[in-house]
């Protein structure tokens, strides 16, 4: 799979990044590398990583840093740059992100600044990272209380996706990643949607590492779809009509309002639900198809409604997004499983429409709780209070 513009890069999906020692060490090759990771990932995989470095003899060191959503700021970018400086990385050096989406975003920004830009690679260790954050060429930090406000477009030198790294992933993080897969499936691929919906229990139980290989297959297909969406418009300078923005119009605001306690994928699931409810209100999608989307989201224990759904906040989110998209709202809404359309004008999203969509989701939520809750996974669903 590749994504081409000024620079093409490969996304390699395969098991055992370390035992391959190949893949990772081939990326590093004769460069001096700094591998940036987090305490959790270091605890889980640091020993294997260091053994791989020693065995292969590449010139790489590991830097362990706290990289949470709250650390997604300039100070942390500068810390990464300082570590790269101490390590003596030059223009041909390499920064490697070995962690979740936050790690990938921060390393991408640091690499674009350090010595005016040095190569970087991602080895994403979360499902969100493997199907989304670590795949594209955007890096960002939060700024002025806005999500991903500062950042860059910088293509990686390569991306290694090893689904076996997901075996240690907590349920909440799996759910978060599934939301990003559902995003692609709903808007682009009916077959992928059916596969994800049909294999839900197996995917969760096996952490995407089932014996049949369905998990890795779903990850690979999701990446393929993502790259096919990104490739013709890598720098978002050809069009601002992007299907991959499905689930990403209201979600940044929801994350901000939650004080960044709401996981990225859960915010995306809420945005997908709201966008679907809006499509249902406008009869852009058959009611039964909209319900199928809600039920599938439920089946993974993901939320379809949140107390953060305040019409004024959502209207504000739409305005901020439209400002970002050169004045056009370009809200992506599904029209069927596997396809979508855009609500382009901001004035089409009236307060009455937002209120009706919220009511649809809140009524549904009330009905589900009266019925005794949604399916199997809901019992393990995270309880998110929506507190500001
Ligand atoms: N640049 C992009 O295009 C893009 C796309 C999507 C999301 N993002 C960004 O990605 C971020 C979300 O990424 P995320 O969900 O990966 O969050 P994250 O990076 O915070 O990781 C989530 C949690 O998983 C833990 N973890 C990581 N790997 C693990 C493993 N293998 N086993 C066990 N635990 C592990 C981490 O310690 C962390 O607690 C958000 O900031 C979002 O804005 C960026």
Low-confidence stretches: 373-388
Helix-strand pattern? EEHEHEHEHEHEEEHHHHHHHHEEH
Tally of individual helices: 14
> Ions, cofactors, ligands: which are bound?
nicotinamide-adenine-dinucleotide
* Spatial order of the strands forming the largest sheet: 1-2-9-6-5-3-4
Count of DSSP strands: 11
CA-to-CA gap between the ends? Answer: 41 Å
> Roughly what is the average pLDDT, rounded to an integer?
91
- State the major sheet: 7 strands, mixed
Shape: globular
Helix proportion: 40-55%
Question: How much of the sequence is in beta strands?
Answer: 15-25%
What structural class do the secondary elements suggest?
alpha/beta
What would you report as the Rg, rounded to the nearest angstrom? 20 Å
Describe how the helices and strands are arranged.
Blueprint: E1 2-3, E2 9-13, H1 22-28, E3 32-37, H2 39-56, E4 59-64, H3 74-86, E5 94-99, H4 101-113, E6 120-124, H5 127-133, E7 138-143, E8 146-153, E9 158-161, H6 171-188, H7 190-198, H8 200-206, H9 214-230, H10 251-257, H11 264-281, H12 287-299, H13 311-324, E10 331-336, E11 339-343, H14 351-370
Parallel strand pairs: 2-9, 3-4, 3-5, 5-6, 6-9
Antiparallel strand pairs: 1-2, 7-8, 10-11
Helix pairs in contact: 3-4, 4-5, 5-6, 5-9, 6-7, 6-9, 6-11, 10-11, 11-12, 11-14, 13-14
This protein binds nicotinamide-adenine-dinucleotide.
